[in-house]
Amino acid sequence: MLSFYPGPSELRPEVAHYMQEAVASGVLTANHRSQPFMELMQQAVKEIRRTLAIPSTYQVYFTSSATECWEIIAQSYASLPSLHLYNGAFGKKWLTVRKSLGHEHATAHPFSEHRMLGHQRVSLPFDRGMLCLTHTETSNGTQVRSRIIGKLKKRLPQALVCVDATSSMGGVALEWKSADIWYASVQKCFGLPSGLAVMVCSPKAIQWAKEQSEDSHYNSLLRIEANAQKWQTTHTPNILGIYLLKRAMQDSAPIKQVSNHVKQRAQLIRKALDKAGFELLIGQERVMADTVIAVKYPEGDLPQLKEEAARAGFTLGNGYGKWKPNTFRIANFPAIPDRGVHQLLSFLRKYNMGLHL
Ligand SMILES: *Cc1c(COP(=O)(O)O)cnc(C)c1O
Fold first, then answer.
1. From the CA of 236, how far away is ligand 1's center (Å)?
2. Which ligand 1 atom minimizes the distance to the CA of 194?
3. Chain centre to alpha carbon of residue 332
4. Residue 134: CB within 6 Å of ligand 1?
5. Which pTM was predicted?
């Protein structure tokens, strides 16, 4: 089976081999304050920095999930208000998490999934606070390009710009300096098993966290930072996950190269779908995500399409949230081989032809 589910997603083919290596290395039974673990963490951070071209001034941390990052951000900047720009389920969930933690000074700024974010019209309802955005909205296959996020950051220096990049980090070249906090869990675009997330923080993010001096949670950003200074984590982390990430980053091409390939392949997929008679959920090229493609399909016919696809060896992604009944999603993550993409497109073309005959 080849999975086109946008998370947990198709694993990199090398993962089984990396896992055996991890067991043999002994690091999985090493204490997380011991030298072998600290060396692993140092190497993992070095490899991810190198492969993803993360600036040396930005810190790299490991957490458990993107969901945890929502909480870390909410609690570590608890006294700051926030403005949430979103057009889909994940961006909205971030706002919900913040509100459910009692932060009533969280404001919604929804925008249409069919149009570019009108960044010139975004104004902050506070003097100092957080601007929260989702880079790639996995639920509907849209993207706010980091160039636009950078424009917001430049125009609104009184904001700490926080970005959920769960479905793009590792597959798309991000302009790191266009935001202060980026995070992603690894079971999407990194092609690794779930249970680990990467958080990347600017000097401003750390400075503001220090001003908040919030360290009452095991996963307060200040505690994470203090531990990272020693190449450690606040708690016994997912050591296997960190090992797999280190190896995956060691063996990956530089992100620019990966990103170009992902973008070209997204265009190819969209063209092929169009030719085969499928309609994309999002019609505007400029807001389409490179890594997740949402496709409309008649509600009554969708279960059969998914079943036939599974019989042919492909797992299609279900629709998400309000688009669940009448869309399916195709992940275009780097771990999926080109050959698999071509086979899926060929299946979809034939299937749709048969259906319309
Ligand atoms: C999957 C996803 C999440 C949640 O990730 P977890 O690892 O389950 O916490 C958050 N944001 C986006 C954009 C996602 O795609």
1. 22
2. 7
3. 13
4. yes
5. 0.97
Q: Answer whether 67 contacts ligand 1 (Cβ < 6 A).
A: yes
CA gap 136, 320 in Å, rounded: 14
pLDDT reported for residue 355: 64
Residues 287 and 142 sit within 8 Å (Cβ to Cβ): yes
What are 195-225's pLDDT values in tens digits?
Answer: 999 999 999 999 999 999 999 999 999 999 9
Alpha-helix residue ranges (DSSP H) falling in the chain: 15-25, 35-52, 66-76, 89-100, 146-155, 203-212, 221-228, 239-251, 255-275, 302-311, 338-356
Strand 197-201 and strand 142-143: the pairing is unpaired
Tell me the helix, strand and coil percentages in the chain, rounded to 5. 45, 15, 40
Mean pLDDT in residue range 302-306:
96
15: buried, middle or exposed (CB in 10 Å: 19+, 13-18, 0-12)? Answer: middle
Give the pLDDT confidence of 32-63 residue by residue, as tens digits: 999 999 999 999 999 999 999 999 999 999 99
| Burial per residue of 193-221, b for 16 or more beta-carbon CB atoms within 10 angstroms, e otherwise | bbebbbbbbbeebbebbeebebbebebbb
- What's the CA-to-centroid distance between 66 and ligand 1, angstroms? 5
Closest residue CA from atom 2 of ligand 1: 166
- At residue 357, the pLDDT reads 42
pLDDT value of residue 151: 97
Which pairing describes strands 136-137 and 82-86: parallel, antiparallel, or unpaired? unpaired
